[in-house]
Inverse folding.
């Protein structure tokens, strides 16, 4: 009986284990004002080592406007470690502020300039904004379809970039005390937000959904990514690829959602009531 209970408990745990895919945007390197290319390369090395320690194959999204002659080597580093790279536009426009034609041209610019590094046909919208009118939304959808692109959604909406912006400022000012304070706040925020979206997913679907986490290749993650991933692991979350996470049926619905904000898939389901 005792053994049976143990088996049931192990099975239940393994069936219920939360899963999360790690994606990192704005490659070669995200917001890092004042940082030299050699610092970006060193920070990338650190991020890649951490991902390797946790046996994670992530997907990086390239913003070709962030590329320079010197930092292109960063993209090779990602590929060498077996990560996939997708398209994240050239200029990272806020789609609310530009026409569909301009946005489409920007997707094509990234294909052209970063094409030799892109290993997949995955596309992530800049700021997750898919168009604030049906017309704009559909124009880009049909272009992506023509290119055979798959849109990479997100399930855990987080404001990691705000923490990075403040952390980068403290880094620039050599304010170590502030850097530690912001780093700790970042981790606490990410724990809270991950548990919030896990709970929302369970409430909406009756099960644990496969999560997709959007992070950036940026200074705060070069320093704190291991703490964040260590926390997921200690909470029993498994790391999966984006491709694996997207097999979850929650990512199929709400393609018709129109908003001027880039909502996560879980938020869209909650707002529209459509699973
Ligand atoms: Zn981005």
């Amino acid at each position: 009986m005792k053994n049976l209970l143990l088996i049931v408990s192990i099975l239940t745990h393994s069936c219920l284990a939360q899963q999360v895919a790690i994606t990192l945007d704005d490659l070669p390197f995200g917001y890092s004002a004042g940082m030299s290319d050699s610092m970006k390369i060193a920070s990338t090395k650190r991020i890649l080592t951490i991902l390797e320690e946790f046996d994670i194959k992530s997907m990086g999204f390239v913003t070709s406007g962030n590329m320079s002659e010197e930092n292109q080597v960063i993209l090779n580093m990602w590929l060498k470690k077996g990560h996939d790279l997708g398209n994240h536009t050239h200029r990272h426009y806020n789609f609310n502020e530009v026409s569909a034609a301009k946005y489409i041209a920007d997707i094509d610019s990234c294909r052209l300039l970063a094409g030799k590094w892109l290993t997949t046909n995955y596309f992530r919208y800049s700021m997750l904004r898919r168009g604030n009118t049906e017309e704009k939304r559909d124009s880009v959808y049909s272009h992506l379809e023509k290119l055979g692109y798959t849109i990479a959604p997100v399930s855990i909406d987080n404001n990691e970039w705000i923490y990075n912006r403040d952390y980068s400022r403290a880094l620039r000012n050599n304010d170590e005390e502030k850097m530690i304070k912001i780093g700790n706040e970042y981790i606490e925020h990410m724990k809270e937000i991950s548990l919030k979206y896990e709970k929302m997913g369970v409430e909406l679907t009756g099960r644990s959904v496969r999560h997709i986490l959007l992070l950036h290749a940026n200074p705060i993650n070069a320093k704190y990514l291991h703490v964040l991933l260590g926390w997921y692991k200690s909470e029993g979350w498994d790391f999966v690829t984006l491709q694996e996470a997207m097999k979850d049926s929650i990512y199929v619905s709400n393609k018709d959602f129109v908003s001027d904000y880039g909502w996560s898939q879980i938020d869209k389901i909650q707002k529209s009531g459509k699973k």
Notes: The two ends are 39 Å apart (CA to CA). Residues 20-272 form a domain with the TIM Barrel fold (CATH 3.20.20.370). DSSP finds ten helices and seven strands in the chain. The beta strands are 19-27, 59-62, 84-87, 122-123, 150-151, 210-216, 238-240.
